[in-house]
Design brief:
The complex is a heterotrimer of chains A (289), B (379) and C (305). Chain A contains twelve helices and two strands, in the order αββααααααααααα. Chain A has 289 residues and is mostly helical. Chain A has a two-stranded antiparallel sheet. The longest helix of chain A has 37 residues. Chain A is globular, with a radius of gyration of 24 Å. Chain B has two domains: 231 residues, Rossmann fold (3-Layer(aba) Sandwich); 125 residues, OB fold (Dihydrolipoamide Acetyltransferase, E2P) (Beta Barrel). Chain B is 25% helix and 33% strand. In chain B, helix 2 crosses helix 3, helix 2 runs parallel beside helix 4 and helix 3 packs across helix 4. Chains A and C meet through helix 1, helix 3, helix 4, helix 5 and helix 6 of A and helix 2, helix 5, helix 6, helix 7 and helix 13 of C. Chain A: Belongs to the binding-protein-dependent transport system permease family. Chain A: It comes from Sellimonas catena.
Chain lengths: 289, 379, 305
């Protein structure tokens, strides 16, 4: 009798998982497998697998200059975005770590970018960066065609993305700062530390647990940036902002090379997976409390 | 050589209520001064003002004859142990101890030597590579003290350092702290709410209440000659017994008459003053639990045995091994505790008659609560 | 003790009440000034930084109320000299902005409600029930966080097009009806409740669903609030998927609808900005209103674990 109850209880449990696993199955597990499958085929314009080519799509990728360019652009982009957004978030969090009149207004403004859509932000930046009417050139007195110049285009989208991603970093770092015990600062003052020493010896190390988590989330997020690139630069000029995600989109929906796009998707997944696993390995070894 | 002088030091947060008021104290070199009092009495605030963690509202703080009110904490050359230890969580024990020297740019090998010395003193050499999160409470405590003794500061400030430890560890650390004080030969200012710690550790005890110093004296003086009712009740365990009564002249002698009518004869040394100023007035009698006895002792020769007796019904008996504490109830005077020999017979419900060592009792003014025979620390 | 302090140092032996009093006054004034300066600097730095952070938004608002011809000058024109709401009127009349906004509200609302339901059900099973493969399934859910949406978007597109549901509300909603992060968040919250809470409810004859609705949901209001704010904003800001699966104007969400304006002639920049501001406002308002909820919900359970 008891066993029966246990059994029904056990079977019952799956019932609660059905809704979420149904969605996962149709829109994540199945397409994930299908992507791997597609990456081994040549496809027609409708995305139907036609000719099995084995690893040819991958071989093509690994021998194509454009793909290496994509990788390089992605790496530069991710590095700028992650450093930039974490720095902005950290500055905001430090500025709001001590109470002062109006702190709520400021902390809300530092967190606000997380509510802004990448597409809307990109359109705003497009006006700001416009070479003739844009406010940036007017304010700085420069005459640079920011978006059309391959030298600046990538930096522009990266800065925009850093701004967009900084909001949640501000929240993470604020929470991290709040977790640092106030009395260690008091002990440090009695021990003879000045403000700068306190910041580098206590505050930054005190943030390291949350810093690590934030780093992982930021890297994954930066890899997936799409809307702002599509609207601001569309991968150009040339291929100077053609990050992997945009390249996937272009290959699949403009060039109808679904097979190649699928192969790039698999590569993107592998990169993110390896990065995540490596970082967690490092964390387990390094940061101890 | 380091002297710390506080003159009329006050602390107020809102100009109306004072956390500390008119704090006057001279702390000499090599003293072990204890600030003791119930929570909220201003003892920690005073310590934090000395450390520079709180601003001094008014008054002066002199360290080594230099006015230090406005000196930054980092320039005061003190070292402090916090109640929650305040260990740096991301640093190893080694770095925690070395921190104060590292930021002073002391050469590495010198730091290394000092860390190992201090670790050896406290028996934490095996923990140097660990982080605070991996330590037990007692170990953290040692690390905090170890970090404090790395330097030769002008004084050590300790804010309830033992309050987070269990009873056994606390007793052990007490002994070690006393030993450490002897070894270091430096001034220690120590805050606690535990009167046992105060009595066992201090060379001088500062009893505080509501922001005021009630008495500052050597532990023995505080115990034997408390300034007022509060100090008398706060120091000592079990607490001093208080009984309200009236002073009445009785022929040539003077009696203290309890509400129940029971009379206790005031010894000659105190009779004149009481008869003069307090005749027919209410006073409070204070008797330490150990000043009860089952029999009349030799030193009571000057007392009339029939006039220093107190009866009561046993309520609770606590056997402590070396002695027994009896809690008795007198009809009108209420409950009182008596510390008697372990052989004393008596079970809850029994009537007992005890003799009071009237030579060593205290009399307090019922209105001002001051000790009527207070010597002012000078006996 | 050297430097500045030596200038103000007073020896106890040569103690002089007047001198000390003078010093007190001097130092109190100095301390007060220092405190004021510190506070002023802090506020000033914050104002500068906040202006810098909000600049794109403030500028977009400014452009959105600028008459078209004012934008096209070589002068520095941060603030419009003749502010006008005409751009907004044009944006709402010339573009089916209301339709876009309704679409987005519908889609984001359904996604939010759907995620809260599926995620809380799954999190309930993962935290209170025992069943075979529990750990494996949970790891599987967590592993999905590593799969970038873009990596499966092609196959998803092919799936929905073969299902024949392109250009419908359904296709916008379905793929986002659950999220690993939501399951994780709720589970973190549920784990803080003792299992005895569930067991005693069971003994009282309370069924699982009843337990979720009557006990769990009221206890996890803050997590639900955080989840709702976060999910709604993300759904509102969704871009790539709607871009792929919507074709007709009636189905477009705000982000797609507005970015379509991107291609029209430059004269419409001010109109476009008005549109952008109009669609940012809902997500911003929800964020500002729900900020407290979001922070307390996301950080009380999730981050520490």
């Amino acid at each position: 009798m008891k066993q029966l109850m246990e059994k029904t209880k056990g079977r019952n449990a799956y019932f609660y998982l059905i809704p979420c696993f149904l969605v996962f199955a149709v829109f994540l597990f199945y397409p994930f497998v299908k992507t791997i499958y597609l990456s081994l085929f040549l496809t027609d314009k409708l995305g139907q697998a036609k000719v099995f080519v084995g690893l040819d799509n991958y071989v093509d990728l690994l021998t194509s200059e454009s793909f290496y360019n994509s990788l390089l652009v992605t790496v530069i982009f991710v590095v700028i975005v992650v450093i930039g957004s974490m720095l902005i978030g950290l500055i905001g969090a430090v500025l709001c770590s001590k109470a002062f009149p109006g702190i709520r207004v400021f902390s809300t403004s530092y967190a606000l970018p997380m509510a802004i859509a990448s597409s809307g932000a990109a359109m705003i930046f497009k006006i700001i960066l416009n070479p003739t009417i844009g406010i940036l050139n007017k304010l700085t007195g420069l005459d640079i065609n920011w978006i059309a110049d391959p030298k600046y285009a990538l930096i522009c989208v990266a800065v925009l993305t850093a701004w967009l991603n900084s909001g949640i970093n501000f929240l993470y770092f604020s929470a991290g700062l709040g977790n640092i015990d106030e009395s260690i600062y008091e002990r440090a003052s009695v021990d003879g530390a000045n403000g700068i020493q306190k910041f580098f010896r206590l505050t930054l190390p005190g943030l390291s647990p949350i810093m690590f988590y934030t780093l992982v989330v930021n890297i994954i997020q930066a890899f997936q940036s799409f809307g702002q690139i599509k609207i601001l630069t569309a991968g150009g000029p040339g291929e100077s902002t053609n990050v992997i995600v945009y390249s996937i989109y272009r290959d699949a929906f403009f060039n109808y090379k679904f097979g190649s796009a699928a192969a790039q998707s698999v590569v993107l997944f592998l990169i993110i997976m390896v990065l995540t696993l490596v970082m967690f390995k490092i964390e387990k070894k390094g940061v101890k409390y | 050589m380091s002297e710390i002088t506080l003159r009329n030091v006050c602390k107020s947060y809102d100009k109306e209520h004072y956390a500390v008021k008119d704090f006057n104290l001279e702390i000499h070199d090599n003293e072990f001064v204890i600030f003791v009092g119930p929570s909220g009495c201003g003892k920690s605030t005073t310590l934090r003002m000395i450390a520079g963690l709180e601003e001094i509202t008014s008054g002066e703080l002199w360290i080594d004859k230099q006015l230090c009110n406005y000196v930054e904490p980092k320039d005061r050359d003190l070292s402090m142990v916090f109640q929650n230890y305040a260990l740096y969580p991301q640093m190893t024990v080694y770095d925690n101890m070395a921190f104060a020297l590292q930021i002073r740019k002391v050469p590495k090998n010198e730091i290394d030597q000092k860390v190992h010395e201090a670790a050896a003193i406290l028996g934490i050499e095996s923990l140097l590579k660990r982080r605070p999160g991996q330590l037990s409470g007692g170990q953290k405590q040692r690390v905090a003290i170890g970090s404090a003794i790395m330097r030769k500061p002008k004084a050590f400030l300790m804010d309830e350092p033992l309050s987070n430890l269990d009873a056994k560890l606390r007793a052990q650390m007490r002994v070690e702290l006393a030993d450490l004080h002897k070894r270091l030969g430096t001034t220690i200012i120590y805050v606690t709410h535990d009167q046992t710690e105060a009595m066992t550790l201090g060379t001088r005890i500062v009893v505080m209440k509501d922001g005021f110093i009630r008495q500052a004296d050597a532990p023995r003086t505080i115990y034997e000659d408390p300034a007022d009712l509060f100090v008398a009740g706060f120091i000592g365990s079990p607490s001093m017994n208080f009984m309200e009564g009236t002073i009445r002249k009785n022929g040539s002698g003077v009696d203290f008459v309890l509400a129940s009518g029971q009379k206790l004869e005031v010894p000659q040394t105190k009779a004149a003053l009481l008869a003069g100023q307090y005749a027919d007035k209410k006073v409070i009698l204070g008797i330490r639990p150990e000043h009860f006895s089952e029999e009349v002792k030799e030193e009571h020769a000057n007392l009339n045995p029939s006039r220093c007796r107190l009866t009561g019904k046993v309520v609770v008996k606590e056997m402590l091994g070396s002695e027994s504490i009896f809690y008795l109830k007198e009809q009108r005077a209420g409950e009182y505790a008596a510390r008697l020999t372990v052989d004393t017979k008596g079970a809850p419900g029994d009537e007992m008659t005890l003799y009071v060592d009237m030579n060593r009792v205290h009399f307090f003014d019922a209105d001002t609560e001051k000790n009527i025979f207070y010597h002012g620390g000078k006996q | 003790m050297a430097g500045m302090n030596s200038a103000i140092s007073i020896e106890l032996d040569s103690y002089n009440a007047e001198e000390v009093e003078k010093l007190h006054r001097l130092m109190n004034a100095r301390a007060l000034r220092k405190k004021r300066i510190r506070k002023t600097v802090l506020v000033a730095v914050n104002i500068i930084f906040a202006l810098f952070m909000l600049f794109p938004l403030l500028y977009s608002v400014s452009v959105s109320i600028m008459p078209g011809d004012e934008l096209f000058t070589m002068d520095l024109n941060i603030i419009p000299s003749h502010p006008t709401f005409e751009n907004y009127i044009r944006a709402f009349t010339q573009v089916p902005l209301v339709q876009f906004i309704l679409n987005s509200f519908l889609v984001a609302g359904c996604i939010t409600i759907g995620q809260i339901i599926t995620c809380s059900l799954a999190a309930f099973a993962f935290s209170f029930l025992e069943f075979k493969g529990k750990n494996f399934l949970f790891m599987l859910v967590m592993a999905t966080m590593m799969v970038p949406g873009e990596a499966v978007i092609i196959s998803n597109y092919l799936t929905v097009s073969s299902m024949g549901i392109l250009d419908t509300y359904l296709v916008l909603i379905l793929p986002s009806l659950t999220s690993a992060m939501g399951i994780f968040l709720f589970r973190q919250f549920y784990m803080t409740f003792p299992i005895s809470l569930y067991e005693s409810a069971k003994l009282d004859g309370c069924g699982n669903l009843r337990f979720i609705v009557k006990i769990l949901i009221p206890l996890t209001k803050s997590a639900i609030g955080a989840m709702a704010v976060y999910t709604f904003i993300n759904a509102w800001n969704m871009y790539m998927w709607p871009l792929l699966v919507t074709g007709s104007e009636e189905m477009r969400t705000v982000q797609i609808g507005i970015s379509m304006l991107n291609s029209v002639d430059a004269q419409s920049i001010t109109l476009m900005m008005a549109g952008v501001v109009a669609i940012i406002i809902p997500s911003m308002v929800i964020f500002i209103v729900g900020q407290k909820q979001l922070i307390s919900g996301m950080f009380s359970g999730a981050v520490k674990g």
